[in-house]
Amino acid sequence: PPLQNAELGKRAPRWIRDNEVTMCMKCKEPFNALTRRRHHCRACGHVVCWKCSDYKAHLEYDGNKLNKVCKDCYHVIIGCTDSEEKKKKGILEIESAEVSGNSVICSFLQYMEKSKPWQKAWCVIPKQEALVLYMYGAPQDVKALATIPLLGYTVDDTPRSADLPHSFKLTQSKSVHSFAADNEELKQKWLKVIHLAVKGETPECQNELQVN
């Protein structure tokens, strides 16, 4: 069983195995081969990303030596409450399953930002916010990686030679988001919704666009 707050640092935790998680157990950022190495919090045993393991606390079970701990354990061990964090929950904390089940359109798309490599993202435009594109690492993830408010973007649906064949771009001043669908039919379904959203409109016949 996970350690209770009072036991943190006093007993060695059970380590969660690296392969049991695809995202940091604290900030929920996905791990990928390039950027996010997995670290263990020495107090609770959770697998966290480098940002969330960037804290150190004296742990009793390890002879009061300084150990890497996650942000949450750090605050518990040094005895500071973290009410600010709770206020920040905000826009990204909508569970994917929740919005996917009530969406204008949702499917996997390849996504590329600036010169980073293409990555697969579960993309959703929820019915209650049909002008916002939510991006998740996987359909069951509890937090979105990013949201793009589509209003005012320019859509460019001609793929460059280096792009994937069924790709399209959204641009607004300096920000450019590239997407690619697995096939032309899926690309056109997305474009149909996005062309409306960038003008601030929502589709009338929403049910036709459900993509499984």
TrEMBL record:
GO terms for cellular component: cytoplasm; cytoskeleton. GO terms for biological process: cytoskeleton organization; filopodium assembly. Residues 19-69 form the B box-type domain. SMART domains: FYVE (SM00064), PH (SM00233). SUPFAM superfamilies: PH domain-like. GO terms for molecular function: guanyl-nucleotide exchange factor activity; zinc ion binding. The keyword tRNA processing does not apply. This is FGD4 protein. It comes from Herpetotheres cachinnans (Laughing falcon). The lineage of its organism: Eukaryota, Metazoa, Chordata, Craniata, Vertebrata. The gene is Fgd4_0.
